[in-house]
Amino acid sequence: MHLHFGAPEDEESGCYWSEEFTKQPAYLALLLLTGSLCKKIDIHHIRKHLLGVINRSKYVDKSVLLALDQVYDETGNVQPEQTHLFVPNSYLSDLAKENRRVLLGASVHPYRNDWEDELEFCLQNKAVLCKWIPSSQLINPEHPKCLPFYKKLVDYKLPLLCHTGPEYAIPTSDETYVEYNNPKYLRTALDEGVVVIIAHCAMPFFGLLDVDYQDDFGEFLKLFEEADQNNWNLFADLSAICSPFRTRYIKIIKENLKNIPASKLLYASDYPIPLSELTYNKSTNFFSWLKFVLKVRLTKNPLDKNFLVIKGMEFDDSIFTNAAKLFANIQYPT
Ligand SMILES: [Zn+2]
Asked: Distance from the CA of 81 to the CA of which of 62, 111, 122, 245 falls in 20 to 30 A?
């Protein structure tokens, strides 16, 4: 689950990113990871690099690569000057068709006037989910315009993967939308019966230093507490959790098996967001921990590194295959 694509302006694919995006720390990480620091960065280089990582992974068979739709205003008009990253569904659906290991993670803005056609196109092309980042795409998940969208997602059992918590990679053009990254705004979707996947388990990125986002994690725990009695189809992904700052939240999730059973957790990476092996680990003594750190350090493939670090947290092994079960329920149009 949960790998990102992004490219500078490219006429053929339609991809683009804003100048502001290239000033974010995440952009620097992208340059470093793809070995493009001193080179001219272009879509062909990024694509080749990413497919190399995906195809050479020893532990990960399939990867959900995420598109990201443009910003649309409440009247349904596209707002390219407010968009910081655009990855069209059409580009990634072609890529997924050519690569057995790539699954299409679609992104359709619910405010666009032609949302139904675009969603239909994604389903025809075997999308496995729809991704939103409320702060970057300027989406309020409780906006009335989302209701028909949710009904369609329910009809097809297409999961909604929604970013939650702080977003440091893709900027926003309207600070008031940062609030909508709080998972509490997903209650409407859940009540409508949508399969909702909360990205990053709503963990603050910089631990307690992320003072504005402690509530997001609290709301995440609350949603899971209420999920059973409300019959919600609620899941969470483990993307970008391999960081020392997220250790305490991983512990809390692991200690809360009653409300957050392994069957609700989906293995994910968030590549090319960088990871660290200095995080929650189940090693019982220093030497087994050192062996673990060395093994991760000696592993070259970033998806394999992510796998080893999450494996070292000792969740139930079902987390590695839960996504496949969820995707098997999708009712594709014939
Ligand atoms: Zn992400």
From this structure: 122
Structure tokens that stand for 323 in this block: 């996504």
**Tokens matching residue 59:** 């532990």
Asked whether the CA dihedral 213, 218, 221, 222 is positive or negative, the reply is negative
User: How many CA atoms lie within 13 Å of 220's alpha carbon, on the beta-carbon side?
Assistant: 30
Could you tell me the pTM of the whole model?
0.95
Expressed in angstroms and rounded, the spacing between residue 171 Cα and the centre of ligand 1 is 13
Give all domains of the chain, ordered by start, each with its CATH number: 3-279+317-328 (3.20.20.140)
Cα separation of the two ends of the chain: 25
% pLDDT > 70, the chain: 100
Whether residue 211 has pLDDT greater than 80:
no
Cα of 112 to ligand 1 centre, how many Å? 22
Would the pLDDT of 205 be above 90? no
How remote is the CA of residue 215 from the centroid of ligand 1, in Å? Answer: 20
